[in-house]
Amino acid sequence: MPKKPIILGIETSCDETAVSLIQDDDSGIPKILSNIVSSQFDIHKEFGGVVPELAARSHVEKINIIAEKAIKESAVSLSEVSAIATTSGPGLIICLSVGLNFGKAMASSLNIPFIGVNHLEGHALSPKLHKKIEYPYLLLLISGGHTQFLSVNGLGKYKRLGTTIDDALGEAFDKTAKLLGIEFPGGPKLEKFAEKGDKSKFKLPKPIINKGGCNLSFAGLKTAVLKITNNIKSEQEKFDLAASFQNTIEEILHIKSKIAFEEFSKSNLTQLNSFVVAGGVAANSGIRKKLIEISNENNIEIIFPDMSLCGDNAAMIALVGLEKYKLKNFDDLDLQANPRLTLDKNAKFLKGAGVVL
Ligand code: KG4
Ligand code: ZN
After folding, report:
1. What is the pLDDT of residues 113-124, one digit of tens each?
2. Cα(201)–Cα(238) distance, rounded to whole angstroms?
3. Cα-to-centroid distance, 237 and ligand 1 (Å)
4. In terms of DSSP bridges, do strands 274-278 and 157-163 run parallel, antiparallel, or are they unpaired?
5. Nearest to 177 by CA among 165, 167, 198, 191
């Protein structure tokens, strides 16, 4: 019997250099043969955010080493690789270009297909690395750059139901953490702060909670947190503010998810069975708990990626690559990086002042 296809995935869209090899499997769930992620936290920490120039330089320095490591760990020889899949957008253009050039060079020298992958589609499909999921399903994508509810109707088939009209949720976590003096990236550490605080101590706003369907807004929250931090005197008050922020986010997602459930059923004229929550912020245990609660109440199965696959990684890129490979959906070697690649091309631009909901 011919061997099952093996895909080598590459991810360099922001501040993680990642390479992974996966192999198709009869079970319908691909096997992860290796999954190496190298983060750049130490490089960007002193600047309080990702510096594109430094990120790209680090990708250039590391991509070869990470690829060698991933290939060695997978115990696969290069001649067995069926195709190379690489993130082509969205992200920082100079970072995307590093992975793209590396991937194209590999595909060209091995004379195998090259496949460009939308990073957001990687997050959208990431739970399929450990579980079979039937289309259509509802996706809540919560990452550092994106916050959207989408109906996932098939590979490459997305309908956006709601989006943030300002900050992404990960961005809101990171900005709030910064105001509390937590070092970048603050999201995961803010959650730990919150565990030590009183969530009822500070009342924070829930922007556009009663309007705009399942669209979301977080910028007003950040302003409210800023005002409070100006008057904070003790460490305990910082914990209380973190807990109040975490609790407010959970309540916003609870209310907006419920609206998204209804919008999904209306849009697909079918009952919602599966709710997937993916992206870096899906690692937040308070959010997980709250969304499990509301899904159980509504008889909907909720699915999260494995903790290790919530943040940026190349296994999810290889997974999309594998699905495209099976459809012979390949790209030419002149594919360009697209920093603004979206999932639903038909969705209206909904950002900034003057947005009408
Ligand atoms: O998906 P991701 O790794 O990168 C993007 O594609 O943006 O998401 C990174 C974001 C960061 O903003 C980070 O602070 C946030 O996810 N994040 C968290 C947690 N873990 C990561 N936010 C809240 N709680 C967490 N436990
Ligand atoms: Zn991401």
Report:
1. 999 999 999 999
2. 10
3. 24
4. unpaired
5. 191
CA–CA separation, 73 vs 36, rounded Å?
Answer: 9
How confident is the model over 89-137, as pLDDT tens digits?
Answer: 999 999 999 999 999 999 999 999 999 999 999 999 999 999 999 999 9
Which residues have CB atoms below 5 A from the ion given as ligand 2?
143, 312
Q: Does position 77 have pLDDT exceeding 70, yes or no?
A: yes
Angle at which helices 187-195 and 169-179 pack, to 10 degrees?
Answer: 60
Spell out the domains of the chain, with CATH numbers in brackets: 6-127+309-326 (3.30.420.40), 133-304 (3.30.420.40)
Residue 122 Cβ < 6 Å to ligand 1: no
Higher pLDDT, 50 or 292: 292
| Torsion sign, CA atoms 208, 212, 216, 222 | negative
Over residues 59-70, mean pLDDT: 98
Partners of 85 in the β-ladder: 9, 115
Asked if 205 contacts 224 with a C-beta cutoff of 8 angstroms, the reply is: yes
pTM summary value: 0.95
Structural contact between residues 11 and 119, judged by C-beta atoms closer than 8 angstroms: yes
Considering every ligand atom shown, identify the ligand nearest to the alpha carbon of residue 317 and give its number. 2
pLDDT digits (tens, 9 = 90+) for 158-193: 999 999 999 999 999 999 999 999 988 899 999 999
328 CA distance to ligand 1 centroid (A)?
A: 33
From 107, 68, 69, select the one nearest 88 (Cα to Cα).
107
| pLDDT score, position 349 | 79
* Cα(260)–Cα(215) distance, integer angstroms: 9
Query: Helix, strand, or coil here: 91?
Result: coil
Q: Which ligand is nearest to the CA of 11?
A: 2
C-alpha triplet 178, 182, 188: angle, nearest 5°: 100
Cβ burial, residue 34 (10 Å; 0-12/13-18/19+): buried
